[in-house]
Amino acid sequence: QSVWGYDSDNGPERWHENYPLAKGDKQSPIEINSKEVQHDSSLSSWHASYDPGAAKTILNNGRTCRVVFDDTFDRSVLRGGPLSGAYRLRQLHLHWGSSDQHGSEHAIDGVKYAAELHMVHWNPKHGNFAGALKQPDGVAVVGIFLKVGNTPKPEMKRILEEIENIKTKGKEAPFQHFDPSILFPKSRDYWTYHGSFTTPPCEECITWILLREPIEVSSDQMAKLRSLSKNAENEPMSPLVDNWRPPQPLKGRIVRASFK
Ligand SMILES: NS(=O)(=O)c1ccc(C(=O)NCc2cc(F)ccc2F)cc1
Ligand SMILES: [Zn+2]
């Protein structure tokens, strides 16, 4: 059945059959090779000003775990860095592996992390999200790598505790009073490049801002994430894991770094 996913019959190698953009020249994710990155001293630092009251719900859509925010006005915005103007926070979600050794979508000098968190923002000058994804400067995604370690970041606990209530596809729970900027690592260093959604329809509308410093999670927290199911409640159990797209051809794109 044509619904896209991450299995052998509907996975990344076949997305182009229904979503031709998947074979475009500015696809994401990519492999970052720090030797080819260009330091750009004109890149300013990025700033997030998020309203904790904008957080609404957390859901399992069978492909990821997503927290949704109120983006009906400039309530939680990201500005600066490579961006011009304020981009509205719409949702955050994660990609993870079936083991701690892989799961991130971007890779740095061959290193894959256990997971990758994406904070998705859109440019209100394009009216609405659907309009923004048709524009090259329509969407900005902050990517944060999750690394398994012994000093896990307590701020991830809130999202992981909620997983109990959204175990199967279609489950949704209230998720309020949450400021996602608590998830940012100490350093603001980032890489930036122009790319696409890493899932169909793979529109090439994203300014990627990938944070250099990973945040730490525990192996138990990763196991928690892997306890999500991609099936609905009354269907056979199927673990929601390995919901990541492999790196795509760079096709001559330049990756800039805000740091030396
Ligand atoms: N992994 S990622 O950060 O690159 C990413 C970010 C957002 C979306 C998204 O909004 N999908 C839904 C969606 C996409 C459309 F293109 C049109 C409508 C729509 F709901 C998908 C992937
Ligand atoms: Zn994503």
List the defining traits of the structure above.
two-stranded parallel ribbon, binds 4-(aminosulfonyl)-N-[(2,5-difluorophenyl)methyl]-benzamide, 260 residues, 15 strands, mainly beta, 13-stranded mixed β-sheet, binds zinc ion
Ligands (ions, cofactors included):
4-(aminosulfonyl)-N-[(2,5-difluorophenyl)methyl]-benzamide, zinc ion
Helix-strand topology string? EEEEEEEEEHEHEEEEHE
Query: What is the β-strand count?
Result: 15
Which value, in Å, is the CA radius of gyration? 17 Å
Low-confidence stretches: none
Reported for the largest beta sheet, the result is: 13 strands, mixed
Measured distance between first and last alpha carbons: 48 Å
Class computed from helices, strands and strand pairing: mainly beta
Continuous helix count:
3
Question: Beta fraction of the residues?
Answer: 25-35%
Name the helicity range.
under 10%
Overall residue-averaged pLDDT value: 97
Tell me the overall shape: globular
Your description of this structure?
By secondary structure, the protein is mainly β. The strands form two sheets. Strands 2, 3, 4, 5, 6, 7, 9, 10, 11, 12, 13, 14 and 15 form a 13-stranded mixed β-sheet that branches. Strand 6 and strand 7 form a beta hairpin. The radius of gyration is 17 Å and the shape is globular. The site of zinc ion (ZN) has 4 residues, from strand 7.
In short:
The longest helix is centred in the last third of the chain and has 7 residues, at 219-225. It contains three helices and 15 strands.
